[in-house]
Amino acid sequence: MKTRKFIIQSILLVVIIVLLSHPEWLPLSETTSYTMKELISTYFGGTVVSVTFAQILAVVLMVCIIWLVCSVLTFIIRSVTLKRSRTQTVASLALSLIKYAGVLAGLIWGLTIIGVNVNTILASLGIVGLVVGFGAQSLIEDVITGIFIIFEGQYDIGDIIVLGDFRGTVKSINVRTTVIEDTGGNLKIINNSDIRNLQNRSKNASLAISEVGVSYNTDIRKLEKVIAENMPKMYEAHKDLYLNQPKYLGVQQLADSSVVLRFSVDVDENNIFMAQRMLNRDLKLMLDENGFEIPFPQVVVHKGE
């Protein structure tokens, strides 16, 4: 799909250049056509560019060569890229650079083939580039920030990061943007320069936390023995979710109607929500099977005589 888009863009560029180089081919008045020729003569090297059929074929050949080179480089990079997130991150940036470099090289090479004095254009763009540079500061900042993200290893493809209230998996890191996908499949495309104060949740193991309230009548010592016996069983039953044995952290709070106990287990960030639900389920079953009550709010009504 990307290759097809690249070819279409290149062909459109060639068509536009050819048409603008031959204003007499366009449905314009003689005055407008003559004025365009004079402008082309002034700004593109002294003479009006005349494109022959042979030059058009040469441009087509050039597009094919650039497409072939980009395709080969893309194939090589994807072939040698390992499944490690760090390698995929560098490969993503390299593929993005190849795409931009291919378009730029095709544009300059194509202009040279049809006889445009590229040196004159580049020289005339010096002042214009200075003016445009002030307006393209955000673009330059995006590119520089993207390079620093890659080399500093702030996050890689496949990492789960949190930006503000958006939590998702990094799908790609390009020269200008980073693409993040949340659990619902929604994509967030953000400029690299706008990525600040992020949380990388994939660098270390995450904690799934569960808090359970028991009645004030509960014998805590007896319950703690039951917990110690059941923690290894929970781990054995759910090794696909838990990275190690769940831990009993003690009494978290003496609430209004219950004694709140706190539990945790190390999990992979990809499984944190599923692990939390499973830990809640395991604890509920453990308390039920051993006769410990989980209190709930109740209203006592006293009826007067």
Compute the gyration radius: what is it?
A: 32 Å
Distance between the termini: 82 Å
Helix content: 40-55%
What is the number of helical segments per DSSP (H or I, 4+ residues)? 8
What is the H-and-E element order?
Answer: HHHHHHEEEEEEHEEH
Beta content: 15-25%
Strand neighbour order, sheet with most strands = 4-3-2-1-5
Mean pLDDT, all residues: 76
Tell me about the largest β-sheet: 5 strands, antiparallel
Report the strand count.
Answer: 8
What is the SS-derived class? alpha+beta
Coarse morphology:
elongated
Low-confidence blocks of residues: none
Oligomer: single chain
3D structure, described in words:
With 305 residues, this protein is an alpha+beta fold. It is 53% helix and 16% strand. The strands form 2 sheets. It has a 5-stranded antiparallel beta sheet with strand order 4-3-2-1-5. A 3-stranded antiparallel beta sheet has the order 6-8-7, with helices on one face.
Secondary structure: elements and pairs:
Elements (H helix, E strand, L loop, with lengths): L1 H20 L8 H14 L9 H28 L4 H29 L4 H18 L1 H16 L7 E4 L2 E8 L3 E5 L5 E5 L7 E2 L5 E9 L5 H18 L9 E8 L4 E9 L4 H18 L16
Helix pairs in contact: 1-3, 1-4, 3-4
Could you give a short description of this structure?
This protein is of the alpha+beta class. The chain has 8 helices and 8 strands. Strand 7 (247-254) and strand 8 (259-267) form a beta hairpin.
